[in-house]
Each structure stands twice: as structure tokens, then as C-alpha cells.
Design brief:
The protein is of the alpha/beta class. It contains 18 helices and 27 strands. The strands form 6 sheets. It has a 9-stranded mixed sheet. It has a 5-stranded mixed sheet with strand order 19-20-21-24-25, with helices on one face. A 4-stranded parallel sheet has the order 2-1-3-4. Helix 4 (71-78) runs parallel beside helix 6 (101-111) and helix 14 packs parallel to helix 16 (354-364).
Length: 496
Amino acid sequence: MCGGGRLPDSVRDKFIELAGGKNARLVIIPTASGDDTIDQDGREVSAIWNSREPASVTILHTRLPDEANDPAFCEPIRHATGVWITGGRQTQIARAYSGTLVEKELHALVERGGVVGGTSAGAACQSRVMLVREKIWEVPGFGLVPGAIVDQHFVVRQRKVRLLEALTTHPDLVGFGIDEGTALILQGRTLRCLGDSTVTLCLAAQGDREPKELELKSGQAADLIMLRRAARDRMGPRFPPEKFAAPEVPHGSLVIVGGGGMPKEITDKFIELAGGPDALIVVLPTANPAPPAVQAREGEFLIRAGAKNVKILGASRPAEIESPDFLEVLKSAGGIWFGGGRQWRFVDAYEGTSAVDAFREVLNRGGVIGGSSAGATIQGDYLVRGSPLGNEEMMAIGYERGFAFLPGTAIDQHFSQRNRFTDMAQVVAAHPQLLGIGLDESTAIVVRGHVADVLGRNKAHFYDRTKPVVEGQPDFTAVAAGSGYDLKKREPIASP
């Protein structure tokens, strides 16, 4: 999606690369312009693309929806690896092709791994909601870009106001403000800027929340699902709330491990709390997108420790997770183990499904939920390091909510080993109502009621911003293995 103006060679070359390079079979749709053979720079369309030496270039043009519904007319798109839509007036594109077989074939092209590109009007028509002369136009675009409004010539023509106004009507959408000479490339869920200027990603104002903008320069990336989740979250109650529930586990137990090795005493304690060696323990390797054979090894440490009934559930798609077979296994589980990896994958897989309630039922009937590394962080109320783009961003919009098995907390792992002290300080400074917990590797807290017992080889670190930070002293309380911490009183418990 290019924002108009003169198209940089880097953008045109990237489109050819995505379409297959020398094997690219291109279809060019110039319907937005006044002349179907000339682009907005006044150059002949076919000559521009033939100079890149693709396998073929076909011009496809009509202004008649009936012709756009003709299978013979659409045949070139069925064989194409890339379709480029030129600039001009997106109203002409929508009137001719919206809801027709051409639109269906464009979606099919993307599904089979091809590329649809366009500049100016050819970019704006790729979203379902289209802006024309400061208004949302009544004929929809193609909807190739889910959950977004695409606006072009963004900086040059000062269009931020109109995009933000459109988002107030559609607050569930993300605004893509693409400047001239610049493209936004969407592959899977990753958005990447390429070109001479910038792309501005916008979220609507909601209640007392100001609009949010994120500017991408060439080479920088963002995550579409992250932005769509953030737009959704802004429509609901503010999170984090001013006051959290107390950090307490009224039923069952939690075993929260800071990553690294698993000392025997931690593994043994988890198996004991699950009901002993014969109890059903369900292992969720979802945070690690490895092949099933690799995921199956996630539970081997439990089997080596004597667990006899370990079940791996690697499903990550809602239909699989909501299946009777998946949920039936959870109904019998005495323990749930969340494996390591990236915690946002747990959110993508389980949030909003019946599985989360089934996890809580394990606790309600006296069982245990455990996890290490990402499987530790997901147990907190506020999710840290949740960004799909990397694990260094502590507070990532769209991925701020954990599963809250331990309410009112934010949990980090690999703590001392990766020197993450200032990272947690940043979180509790922004949200002092949270209790921050930093767990060292090979170290766990076992939570029953409002007491956290520290097991393993190192320490747990507790950040309490309800108490003043004293200059020259640590801004956390470190509790060594063998001691405990009262999560309600927010104070250490002496070793027995």
C-alpha cells in the first residue's frame, strides 16, 4: 500500500520480489485513472512494469460491474502472482469492482501467497472503509486489509484530522496514514514501512483517552493484531484499573517459575499439588511454535520426576480449543503446566475461549497451575513483555492482560540473570497499584492463599510502590529460597 506521489524504485522492486521476481505474472488495474493505459505520472502503465522484466504483464480494466463479474474477464487474476492497482480516484475502482468476482479473485490471490499492491487510490481501496473528500464513502473497498482504514498522501496533504474523525465513527479500526513516496507492507500480521517518508498508525480517541499515534520510518515494523487488540481495548473499561483485586489464590495453588533449570524440589512440589504421580497433568506448549514432536518434549521433565499421566495439548486455534475433546481433558486435570516461549502466544490462543474458565476450575477444585518463563508471566494480572515484535517492551498495547491467576501482580522471569531490575521498576512506576514480582532462574514461588513460598536456587524480588522508595536502598524486597512473602501485607515472612 503506497501513499501516492512518485513511487520509489525500492517499493516497485519489493512488489516485484513478492510477486516472484523474474517469474512474476503481473496484472495491472488502471481503472482509477482517467486513461486506462497511462499512470498518474503520465507514463505508459505496461512499459513501467515490463522494464522490470517479469514473466508477463496484463492490463485489466473495465468500469462495468457486470463485466467485472464475468469469469472470462477475471481469468488473468487467477493466473497472476501479483496485481497492482494504480492511483487516481478510488470511487472509480469501487464502483467497478466492489463486491464483484474481481474482488473475490483478489482475495484468492492473497490466500494462495500472491501480492496485491497499489498506490494512492490503489492503496485506499484495499481497506473496507474508504475515505473520499473528508467523508466515509458509501461503496466499500475490497477489505484486503482487515480491521483498518487506509489513507494516502498523509503528511503532504495534512490528512491526520480526517483519518482521526473517521476512526471516531469506526473506533474498532486502526488507521494507516501513508505518506507519499512510502509504502506499508503487510505480510501475515507484520506491518513494515518502506520508502522515503513515514507511515502513521492511529487509534481513535475514546472517552478521556486521547488519540494514539505510532510513526514508522522506513525499515521499522509494527504488529497488526497488536494494534487491533489495542483499538478493541480502548473501547472497554480502562486497563489497568485504579485498584486490582488482592493477590490471593483462595483455592488450589500456583507454581510460578522464573525459567532456566527446574530443580527437583520444584518439580516434585508441582506433582504433589496436582494430586500425586497418578494425577492427570496437562502441559500447554503453546508459547513455543515448534513442531508437534518438539512440543511433546515439553512435559518430559514431569515424566522423569515420576508423573505417570501427562497429556500434551498443543492446540492453538479457537476451533480446536473449543472442541469437546480439548475441554474434556481439562475437566479431569489435577494440574496445568504452561510452558516457555513467548507469552503473547498464550493470549492469542486462549483469550476469550472456554479454556480459560476451565483453567480456573482446576484451581477451584484444589488443583495447581504452574509454568516457567512465559508460563510464569501469563499467570499475572498485568502481562509484561507481551509484544509480538520482541520481548524487550515491558508494557505493550493490546497485550497488557494476563490470565490473572494471581490477581494484582505483574510477573517477570530470568530476573537477576538478565539484569531486569530497572524493567520492573518502570512497570510499577507507571502502575503503582501493581505488586511487581521478579523471579530468578531455577527459582519458584508456590502460592497458596496469600502466601508465596520461595523454592529453588536463587531469589524472588517483590516491588511494592505503596511504600516510598528510599534513596540509596533497593527499591524491591529480595526473598531467598526457603523463605516466604505475604502478598496481602506485602512483607517478607521469616524462614521457618
